[in-house]
């Protein structure tokens, strides 16, 4: 499982950004993730990292848990809603591998599951 905002760039160049709202629902947009602390000094970043933690943008590498998805074709996406109809999760089917994105303790959690599980 990985945690934090997820930005997916599709082969066509489109972006899907998945993040958590403050009410623990899912936010999906077509905008790139913007680092809210960009331009801060190294000292300020060290303080912020200690106080609240920091997210960093990085590409998926071979050892990343999401690496098995790279190059797979997306077959379908299913919304997951809570009891009042708010979006709280998404299930992506990439051929035989599925990726679930959901809110866990106020952050996006991503887990991969085999389609048969």
What does this structure look like?
With 117 residues, the protein is mostly beta strands. The protein has one domain (2-114). Helix content is 9%, strand content 41%. It contains 1 helix and 8 strands. The strands form 2 sheets. It has a 5-stranded antiparallel β-sheet with strand order 1-8-7-6-5, with no helix packed on it. A 3-stranded antiparallel β-sheet has the order 2-3-4, with no helix packed on it. The longest helix has 10 residues, at 42-51.
What would the keywords be for this entry?
single chain; 117 residues; mainly beta; 5-stranded antiparallel β-sheet; 3-stranded antiparallel β-sheet; globular
Short description:
With 117 residues, the protein is mainly β. It has one helix spanning 42-51; strands at 2-3, 6-9, 15-20, 26-29, 74-81, 87-94, 97-104, 107-114.
Radius of gyration: 15 Å
N- to C-terminal distance:
16 Å
How many helices? 1
How can the largest sheet be summarized? 5 strands, antiparallel
Give the helices and strands as they follow along the chain.
EEEEHEEEE
- In percent, how helical is the residue content? under 10%
Strand percentage: 35-45%
- How many separate domains make up the residues? 1
Label the overall shape: globular
Please tell me the overall pLDDT: 84
Give the beta-strand count. Answer: 8
Q: Could you say which structural class the secondary elements and strand pairing correspond to?
A: mainly beta
Low-confidence stretches: none
Q: Strands of the biggest beta sheet: in what spatial order?
A: 1-8-7-6-5
């Amino acid at each position: 499982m990985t945690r934090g905002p997820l930005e997916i760039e599709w082969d066509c160049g489109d972006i899907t950004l998945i993040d958590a709202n403050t009410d623990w629902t899912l936010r999906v947009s077509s905008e790139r993730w913007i680092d809210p602390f960009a331009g801060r000094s190294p000292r300020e970043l060290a303080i912020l990292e200690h106080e609240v933690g920091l997210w960093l943008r990085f590409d998926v590498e071979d050892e990343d848990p999401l690496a098995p998805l790279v190059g797979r074709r997306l077959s379908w996406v299913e919304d997951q809603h809570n009891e009042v109809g708010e979006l709280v999760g998404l299930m992506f089917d990439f051929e035989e591998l599925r990726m679930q994105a959901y809110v866990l303790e106020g952050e996006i959690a991503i887990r991969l599951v085999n389609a048969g599980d």
